[in-house]
Amino acid sequence: MPRKYPPLTPREVIAILQARGFDYDHSRGSHEYYSGVLKGKRRFVTVDKSYKEFDIDRIKDMIDQSGMTREEFYGSTRRTAKKINLIAPKYPVPLK
After folding, report:
1. 23-77 tens-digit pLDDT
2. Which pLDDT band holds residue 1 (cuts at 50, 70, 90)?
3. If residue 47 lies in a helix (H) or strand (E), which one and from where to where?
4. What distance in Å separates the CA atoms of residue 70 and residue 64, rounded to the nearest whole number?
5. For residue 11, is it left (φ>0), alpha (ψ between -120 and 50) or beta?
6. Would you state the pLDDT for residue 3?
7. Residue ranges of the alpha helices (H) in 1-96?
8. Which CATH superfamily is domain 10-81 in?
9. Rg for the chain (alpha carbons), in Å?
10. Domain limits of the chain?
11. N or C end of the chain: which has fewer CB within 10 A?
12. What are phi and psi of 42, to 5 degrees?
């Protein structure tokens, strides 16, 4: 059985954000900031590229910052959807 919040690399998180229309905004040290409009609200997500893999708390923080649910976040790319055994007819999965 897969973990509820399997670890993700910074590259995977960036791919998720770009699949949802987030764009690179700026960086400060090892932190990169991505901005986008999701569900009618402007959102900013911080990605710390110094991590090899994000732990559960960092992933939950980025999901909260993005305004997505766990399924919407992981379902943004086929690769990350497989980590939670999410099967969809197309990726990214539609937002609720």
Report:
1. 999 999 999 999 999 999 999 999 999 999 999 999 999 999 999 999 999 999 9
2. low
3. strand 41-48
4. 9
5. alpha
6. 82
7. 10-19, 56-66, 70-74, 78-83
8. Hypothetical protein. (3.30.920.30)
9. 13
10. 10-81
11. N
12. -75, 130
CB atoms within 10 A of CB 53: 12
- pLDDT value of position 2: 67
Phi, psi of 36 (to 5 degrees): -170, 165
Q: Which amino acid is at 10?
A: P
Rounded (to 5) percent helix, strand, coil in the chain: 35, 25, 40
**Do residues 17 and 36 lie in contact, with contact meaning Cβ atoms separated by under 8 Å?**
yes
The pLDDT of 66-89, averaged and rounded, is 94
Name beta bridge partners: 47.
32
pLDDT for res 26: 97
Q: Are 39 and 67 in contact (CB under 8 A)?
A: yes
Structure tokens at 33: 């900031």
Token pair, residue 19, equals 């699949």
